[in-house]
Design goal:
BirA Bifunctional Protein, domain 2; seven-stranded antiparallel beta sheet; two-stranded antiparallel sheet; alpha+beta
Length: 208
């Protein structure tokens, strides 16, 4: 399904060119894979990034988000599948725009010890618009969560690092729950992510 041509979209330096590539190359694949991921997560709503506020600079990344709110995803915890120019990412995210942030942070705090036991491929970050992240340890998670509580613009998200592109990139969709495959490591990542989003009670428990 996903291939090297999808990443070539980000080589176009113009807003019109890159947006055209996203709409023609990437978005149709998001639409195709959305039912598989929605069924696996039990999510009722999908949201493909529209980049409507982009009037000059081309988007650095693009994504599809999954949650239970048809009106939007930024106000609730959600899972995001998307592209940077060099990687395919999967994030479980609570953004700065989330409603009831202090209550949400309290719920997240109870999950940190369990989340910290996940596979070493997982990362944590406080900025969903930057590639930089840190290993998902309890100490790192506590730092990011403290920042999320204190700084209005901060995010809280965690993800795996198993999809960074280094050479030829080939992926294909399957009907099984671990519907994204690249290697044994990425397969394990997707299984672990299912643990993060369900067993750790983060799935849709945190939705107000």
């Amino acid at each position: 399904m996903f291939n090297d041509r999808d990443f070539e979209v980000f080589e176009d330096p113009t807003l019109a060119g890159r947006m055209g590539g996203i709409k023609s190359e990437i978005d149709p694949k998001f639409e195709a894979i959305a039912p598989l991921i929605s069924d696996w997560l039990g999510a009722s709503a999908t949201h493909i990034a529209q980049h409507l506020r982009r009037h000059k600079n081309p988007p650095m990344n693009t994504w599809i988000a999954f949650n239970e709110q048809f009106r939007g995803y930024k106000m609730t915890p959600h899972l995001m599948l998307g592209f940077w120019d060099d990687r395919l990412f999967v994030w479980l995210a609570c953004l700065a725009e989330a409603s009831q942030r202090q209550w949400l942070a309290s719920q997240l705090e109870t999950q940190l010890p369990e989340l910290a036991t996940l596979d070493a491929a997982f990362q944590v970050s406080g900025n969903h618009m930057a590639k930089a992240s840190a290993p998902l340890t309890l100490a790192n998670s506590e730092v990011v969560l403290a920042r999320y509580r204190q700084i209005k613009q901060a995010d809280f998200w965690w993800a795996g690092s198993g999809f960074v592109v280094s050479q030829s990139f080939k992926m294909r969709a399957h009907s099984k729950p671990n519907c994204i495959k690249r290697s044994a490591r990425s397969n394990h990542f997707m299984r672990s992510f299912k643990v993060a989003s369900r067993k750790a009670s983060v799935n849709w428990l945190l939705t107000a």
